[in-house]
Structures are given as structure tokens and as C-alpha cells.
Amino acid sequence: MKKLLVVSAVALFASMSAQETSNEGFAKGSTFVTGAVGFNSVKTGNVKENNFTISPSVGYFVTSNIALGARIGYNNLTKDNGTRKATVDTFTAGVFGRYYWMPASKFSVFAELGADYANSSYDSGVAGSQKSKANGFGVEFAPGISYFLSNNFALESKVGVLGYNSVKPDATGAESTDSFNFGLNLNDIKLGLVYKF
């Protein structure tokens, strides 16, 4: 009887441990949040430049391998030379889709396809001048990796990019600026933190 109780206790403990470790990784119905927050200030002589950015994003696994999500962002850049202060404000909104290989494991690889819209306004700081505005959109494809540190927190990084962007000033007769980029620079790898709930 004692042996049966010991075996049962060990089996119960093993199944509980297996359930705890099986929560690592993503599964259908998982939701995650990530993003970026940053502030940068540079001063050269009398010229001071500040840059603030915030860009949260949220994703939801519609299947065990596919996550769909949305993101928003705001960036404020100011340049003050003591006599005038120029400001650029940019708002962005976008959607993305990711396909994960091995999503239920501690380590997984994903490919992300995203599309973003941006609206920016520029104030030169000169009295009497009007703000200039521009609208743009972009599409990009990027591979990435994800590694779970615990059941809820993971590190992720995107490596390389294939993208297209178009920006057009909001003025009569203005021409758009279109750009295509492709790159894989291992010096530009940035890590992000993901929270899964």
C-alpha cells in the first residue's frame, strides 16, 4: 500500500511539473504584448536635440502557428538652437501577421509581415509659418527568433528586413518619395521583451 501511495505521489508530481513546463511557448488563444519606449537627448554647443518614442503592440494566436496583431506609435523630435525650436511629430498605426515554427517550445523562429500608416507634422518654429504635413505607408517582411525565459516572459529579436515605404507631403503638386530596402546587418540586432498572458 505504501509503495502504491509513493508511486501515485511521484506520478502526480511529475504530471504537475510537466503541466508547468508545457506553459512555455505560445499556443492557440495566447495573447502577447511588446513594444518600445525610448528617449534620447544630444547637445552640441547651443543646439539641443531631443527624441522621444513609444510604440506598443499586441498580438493574438488565431491558430497554434499564426498570430495576428496591431501596433500604434508616437515619435516626437525637437531641435532647439536657442532662437527657435523645430518640432516633428509622427503618429503611426499598423497591423502584422506572424507565422511561428515550434511555437509551443522554449525557442521558436517566426516570420513577420506587417503594414503601417504614418502621419507626421513639421513645425519650423519660425513665427507666422505654417506646419507642413506628410502621410506615408510601408510594408515589410522580417524573420525573427523568440526565446522564453519563463512561462510569461520571452526575449525576441528580428533579424534583417525586406520593405517598401512611400511618403508624400500634404501639399498641392507634391511628389511622393518611394524607397525599397533589403538588408541583413548583424550589428543592428535588437532584443525585445515579450509578455504572454
Question: Could you describe the 3D structure shown?
Answer:
The chain is mainly beta. It has one domain: Porin. It has one helix and ten strands. An eight-stranded antiparallel barrel has the order 1-2-3-4-5-6-7-10. It is elongated and about 60 Å long. Residues about 1-20 have low confidence and may be disordered.
Could you list the spans in which at least 5 consecutive residues all have pLDDT below 50?
Answer: 1-21
The CATH C-level class name: Mainly Beta
End-to-end gap:
42 Å
**Approximate strand percentage:** over 45%
Q: Biggest β-sheet: count, sense, barrel?
A: 8 strands, antiparallel, barrel
How many discrete structural domains?
1
**Multimerization state:** single chain
Helical content band: 10-25%
Q: What order do the strands of the largest sheet run in, or round the barrel if closed?
A: 1-2-3-4-5-6-7-10
- Strand count: 10
CATH topology: Porin
Question: Structural class of the helices, strands and pairings?
Answer: mainly beta
What is the number of helices?
A: 1
